[in-house]
Fold:
Amino acid sequence: MACFPFTRTLAQPRDMATDQRIDITATLGALPAFPQLRGKRVRLRGPTAGDADDLFALFSDPEVMRYWSRAPMRERGEAEGLIGEILDAFSKRELLNWVIVDADDRVIGTTTLFRFDPRHRRAEVGYALRSDHWGRGLASEAVSLAIDWALRTLDLHRVEADIDPRNHASRRVLERLGFRSEGVLRERFFVGDEATDSELFGVLATEWRERRR
Structure:
């Protein structure tokens, strides 16, 4: 027997809690600029043209890019192009790709919220950090800032992340933040000629808030 999704009719009771929820699309659309988020050691802000050298240093590092779904950058112009893509995507409210900066306002990484799904109240998070800053908890701090903002401002129900299963450092970041592994998708990405797996992680808003009480 085929099974079809039902459509809510006018005779069904309304969910008043749903009616009062934040309109994710409208809230994103009303943002005048990248929200600036400040932690104890790092800050998240939107990228500028002056960040090209730092972003090229980040994304041309083979260690940083080892488990990404694209090869390392080879020319500075790619970083300039990335900045343009980030700003264009923000103008369409398709993603929020912050740069992570230190106390001197130098870019040391990125944190991104993307694939917003207003209907199901979820989004994905991604991140990268300069390899000479690994092991200090800075990625965890930056990702926490982004997720705290998303849950508070957009009232998301769930945040997801995916990693290459071999990326144990990234796994530790997610597990430290309360994400749970939810399965492996085999050979989901090609990096050059290599087919790589993708492991999906997720955290619910209720779980996130419970850990921070």
User: Anything to note?
Assistant: The beta strands are 37-38, 43-45, 95-101, 107-117, 122-129, 158-163, 180-191, 194-204. Residues 138-154 form the longest helix (17 residues). Helices lie at 16-19, 24-29, 52-59, 62-65, 76-91, 138-154, 168-176, 205-211. The mean pLDDT is 90.
